[in-house]
């Protein structure tokens, strides 16, 4: 086998991707997918690959990662409960703080039940694959997050996608589901690639008209959309018709973990039947204590909310005035996607921005809708107005250097 | 509709998606011959679903690799 494993190498299926990456990096391009933050100075600043960098590509929407109360709660739990749980939630892995964070979620969403998973990915994986079984139908938006798709794949239900945010396409599919079959409609509040929101008022009412249960992933809205920060479903006035809300601690909350909240009277049985909940270790107590503190602080955060929206509006209008093509006509969330002409230009622009001292997310197919290459900017309440102006200057210089504007 | 009629209808639906003008037989494969990507598949499937008022779930799509299998599946689904 001097020539290497020619046949039978299970890795040959990745050859095309490997070649594409090598091609990109051979031109001297800095690797967009292996950035290291050597030091994190604040929610909006870090030393990345040796450079002082403004962070515009994290999901630290409310800047809670460095909140002194959040950190203090974690430290105390470390001291009092130790570093880890070494066990499943259903056996030895439920500590005081796991219950407390679930209580905090019940308070935050004003719902009867809350279940915390190790990540948001696992929350979608677990809930979707468990509640929709053989003979049931899952109707989902084609632009759904990978964790939703994987939840569908893991279960036994029939999976039926519809065109992104298309009310008519949703209704047609619901109408055609065989009589008597169980139906789960899966939607997101904010779609994280373009930063657009779903028309949940109409969608949830269509779902209910056909007797479907509704699950909404509100990962990118917690704390700053809806009167109490419960998400797009609250803003749209349909939260009471949403049977399950999925969320994550890895964004506004500023820690790690995922959850599902629900008013379903039988919801607690999920703790015994949902495999991604049962067959994995519970999160460390320090993470739970930090999360609980953060969630409760997010309930009283009027100023931060206002700052975040102000930042989002300023960046959106500024980028547009510079001539960039954006994912939405109006700023609908804290994510602003800048559409790149192609992957090569996108990668060049990403690198030019990094050299200016700005980190954004490079997103490429297949994660993106319509095979677009995107530079995704996500704002933080803690970005100062001055930082936002600095960011716009960086975009202008980089965009001109790369020839995009 | 019988199989022949389903065949005729789907042939007319596939035209706008058949960018290279590939000749369509029962053995024509969607992934290899027609080079459909996942977005094209979604749009094409939606056209068929609307034309026949049926659902072709992704689970069922996974079993359909070529044109002939599609015609068979749709003929059966409308029943
Ligand atoms: C819409 C959506 N759902 C779920 C997740 C998963 O969250 P987590 O990072 O907690 O796994 C994410 C983030 O990656 C997301 O964007």
List the helices and strands and how they pair.
The complex is a heterodimer of chains A (about 400) and B (about 80).
Chain A: H1 15-26, E1 37-42, E2 45-48, E3 51-55, H2 68-81, H3 96-109, E4 113-117, H4 120-131, E5 137-141, H5 146-154, E6 158-162, H6 167-176, E7 183-188, E8 190-191, E9 196-197, H7 200-209, E10 213-217, H8 232-235, E11 244-248, E12 258-262, H9 270-273, H10 275-278, H11 285-298, H12 302-322, E13 335-340, H13 343-356, E14 358-359, E15 361-363, E16 373-378, H14 385-402
Parallel strand pairs in A: 3-14, 5-6, 5-7, 7-10, 10-11
Antiparallel strand pairs in A: 1-2, 2-3, 4-12, 8-9, 11-12, 13-16, 15-16
Helix pairs in contact in A: 2-11, 3-11, 4-5, 6-7, 12-14, 13-14
Chain B: H1 3-14, H2 38-52, H3 58-61, H4 67-77
The complex binds pyridoxal-5'-phosphate.
Determine Rg of chain A (CA atoms, Å). Answer: 22 Å
Oligomer: heterodimer
What number is the mean pLDDT of chain B? 94
Largest interface: pair, residues per side: A-B, 17 and 15 residues
Low-confidence stretches of chain B: none
C-alpha geometry of chain A: globular
Query: How is the biggest beta sheet of chain A arranged?
Result: 7 strands, mixed
Number of domains of chain A: 2
Small ligands present: pyridoxal-5'-phosphate
In this structure, how is the largest beta sheet of chain B organized?
A: none
Query: Would you report the number of β strands of chain B?
Result: 0
First and last CA, distance of chain B: 9 Å
Structural class of chain A: alpha/beta
pLDDT under 50 segments of chain A (min length 5)? Answer: none
Strand content of chain A: 15-25%
Number of helices of chain B: 4
Short description:
Chain A is α/β, with parallel strands linked by helices and 405 residues long.
Note down, in words, how this protein is organized.
The complex is a heterodimer of chains A (405) and B (79). Chain A is an alpha/beta fold. Chain A folds into two domains: 28-62 and 302-402, Aspartate Aminotransferase, domain 1 (Alpha-Beta Complex), CATH 3.90.1150.10; 67-298, Type I PLP-dependent aspartate aminotransferase-like (Major domain) (Aspartate Aminotransferase, domain 2, 3-Layer(aba) Sandwich). Chain A contains 14 helices and 16 strands. Chain A has helices at 15-26, 68-81, 96-109, 120-131, 146-154, 167-176, 200-209, 232-235, 270-273, 275-278, 285-298, 302-322, 343-356, 385-402; strands at 37-42, 45-48, 51-55, 113-117, 137-141, 158-162, 183-188, 190-191, 196-197, 213-217, 244-248, 258-262, 335-340, 358-359, 361-363, 373-378. A seven-stranded mixed sheet of chain A has the order 4-12-11-10-7-5-6, sandwiched between helices. Chain B is an all-alpha fold and 79 residues long. Chain B is globular, with a radius of gyration of 11 Å. Chain B starts with a helix and ends with a helix. The mean pLDDT of chain B is 94. Bound molecules: pyridoxal-5'-phosphate.
């Amino acid at each position: 086998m001097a020539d290497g494993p020619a046949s039978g190498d299970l890795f040959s299926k990745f050859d095309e991707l490997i070649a594409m990456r090598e091609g990109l990096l051979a031109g001297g391009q800095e690797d967009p997918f292996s950035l290291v933050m050597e030091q994190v100075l604040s929610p909006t600043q870090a030393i990345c690959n040796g450079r002082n960098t403004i962070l515009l590509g994290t999901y630290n929407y409310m800047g809670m990662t460095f909140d002194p109360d959040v950190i203090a709660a974690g430290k105390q739990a470390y001291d009092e409960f130790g570093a880890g749980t070494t066990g499943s939630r259903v056996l030895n892995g439920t500590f005081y703080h796991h219950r407390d964070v679930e209580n905090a979620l019940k308070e935050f969403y004003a719902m009867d039940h809350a279940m915390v998973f190790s990540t948001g990915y696992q929350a979608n994986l677990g809930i979707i694959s468990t509640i929709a079984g053989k003979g049931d139908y899952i109707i989902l938006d084609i632009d759904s997050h990978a964790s939703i798709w994987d939840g569908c794949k893991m279960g036994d239900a029939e999976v039926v996608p519809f065109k992104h945010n298309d009310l008519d396409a949703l209704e047609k599919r619901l109408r055609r589901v065989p009589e008597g079959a169980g139906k789960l409609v899966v939607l997101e509040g904010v779609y994280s690639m373009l930063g657009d929101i779903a028309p949940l008022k109409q969608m949830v009412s269509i779902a209910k008209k056909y007797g479907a249960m509704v699950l909404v992933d509100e990962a990118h809205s917690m704390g700053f959309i809806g009167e109490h920060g419960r998400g797009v479903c609250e803003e749209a006035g349909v939260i009471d018709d949403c049977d399950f809300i999925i969320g994550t601690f890895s964004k506004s909350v500023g820690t790690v973990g995922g959850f599902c909240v629900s008013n379903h009277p039988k919801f607690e049985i999920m703790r015994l039947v949902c495999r991604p909940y049962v067959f994995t270790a519970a999160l460390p107590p320090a993470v739970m204590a930090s999360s609980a503190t953060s969630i409760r602080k997010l309930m009283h955060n009027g100023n931060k909310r206002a700052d975040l929206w102000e930042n989002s509006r300023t960046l959106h209008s500024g980028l547009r005035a510079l001539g960039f093509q954006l994912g939405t006509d109006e700023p609908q969330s804290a994510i602003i996607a800048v559409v790149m002409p192609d992957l090569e230009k996108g990668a060049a622009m990403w690198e030019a921005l990094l050299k200016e001292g700005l980190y954004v997310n490079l997103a490429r197919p297949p994660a993106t809708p319509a095979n677009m290459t995107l530079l995704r900017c996500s704002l933080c309440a803690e970005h100062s107005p001055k930082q936002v102006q600095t960011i716009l200057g960086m975009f202008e210089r980089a965009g001109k250097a790369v020839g995009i504007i | 509709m019988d199989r022949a009629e389903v065949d005729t209808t789907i042939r007319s639906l596939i035209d706008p998606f058949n960018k290279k003008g590939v000749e369509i037989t029962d053995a024509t494969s969607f992934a290899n011959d027609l080079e459909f990507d996942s977005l094209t598949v979604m749009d094409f499937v939606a056209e068929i679903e609307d034309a026949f008022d049926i659902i072709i779930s992704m689970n069922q799509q996974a079993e359909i690799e070529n044109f002939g299998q599609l015609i068979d599946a749709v003929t059966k689904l409308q029943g």
